[in-house]
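Proteins fold reproducibly. Next comes an illustrative record:
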Amino acid sequence: MLLPATTTPETGERFQHAKRLALALALGGVLALSFAPWGHALLQIAGLTGFFALLWHTARRGTSLREGAILGFAFGMGCFTVGIAWLYISMHHYGGMAAPLAVAALLLFCAYLALFPALACSLAVACWRAGRPWAAVVASAGLWTLGELLRGWLFTGFPWLSLGYAQVDGVFAALAPWLGVHGVSLVTILCASGAGLIVARLPRPDPASLAAGLGCCALGLGITLAASSWAPPEPGKATLRVRLVQGNVPQELKFDPQRAHAAMIDYTQAIDGSKTDLTVFPETAWTVPWPQTPVEVAQSLLKRIEMTGGLIAIGKPIVENAREPGGRRWSITNGIAVIDSSGQEIARYDKRHLVPFGEFVPRGFRWFVDLMNIPLGEFARGAADQPLLSVNGERVAFNICYEDLFGHELAEQVRQGATVLINATNIGWFGRSHALGQHLQIARMRSIELARPMLRATNTGVTAAIDHRGRITARLPDHERGVLFATVAGQTTLTAFARFGQWPVACLATMLAAIGWIAGIRGGGRERNR
């Protein structure tokens, strides 16, 4: 005999909780899709507004801080799992790690990243529970931004998918020269959280929630409007002629000796007789130090450089030996060597912000690296203060690979006098994934923040020229061999972000978090005393 199904209140609540988690996870995926190469700034606002509407609606029902943290964690997992899924390609396809282990490693890393929005949401719900919705909205903007800043610093930092990057073509990008990408994130959250408060109270929002939501949106838009009144001046006549070479060397063959030799020949033949001041090869275009370059390749390369009348910057390992009391100590850096037509190294740049697991092994994680078959050793770190390259009246600062994620470090180069930024990178590790579009978006944000043109020479893409306002002026197709010529004019204007770095936005975020928290505590105290 079949018994009629019954639903207890506990079962119903568990079902509703599962629905909320699924919705938060899906909205996190929507947020990831708002970044390049698919998305749009408005899609990000929609995803964030939907999530905060869910969070505030749940908080209104008397949710616990724990449930707020769980919703924030689910939202973060949805965003990071979709947004950085390309890490699986590097670990499994190129690193040789077993697929289940690569998936587990990806999910564990995403879980770590999701802890930051989880903590922000939990504390924001605490402000709500005190009976101050506006305090929760204000606090959420400050707390989320502080989480981004912490994520960009802790364990050498991983600020990828900071919210502000999706706003490169959006209205909030006007804040970047003042407060950097995290300032853009702060105002984005402030507006989306305020809009979410109104949506959570539909169809009949109460006057207090309506006023709080509209007030926060107005504040964010007002700050943006004030910031947009300034724009960097247009530079003078473009004079620096640069050749950017995209080798498109398959990553699985890059460290094969025969293919590496063939790549050297291909790079050399990419230099025609066109006059340029500087030719740039990507990161690790040479997989051996310059002295180990085959003689015939070196002679042909130098002859072609002599014909162009310029210099060549080659991404390659740089080996040094230093005499010490106990003998010799060898060090290898991931670097860029600038070579003239005589074969002399006249300048160099050594990468200073190394990639964990790719360029150095964090303490206690050697076992993890041993699960992969990646032919990279531990690199030495470059000095924090390195000389700029002076060429044809411009002062060029190099950065390698994901160093351009750290805007405050590039700001140091700008304060030293850099007028042009050049990024040499190889993200062939991530195949034909969305990592390429995301990295281009990051580079564009650096140009907006610092008011400097950014030139990118990459192995598989995206090789591009970006002007001082973050606009792409030329680019090569991805995953094709090619050469991009660019003539650029440097910029000398110092933006507020270039002058002060992340300190202003860190102080502003702390102030907002403190205002929301203190208002929440006082409001809660009054509620308890009634």
Summary: The radius of gyration is 25 Å.
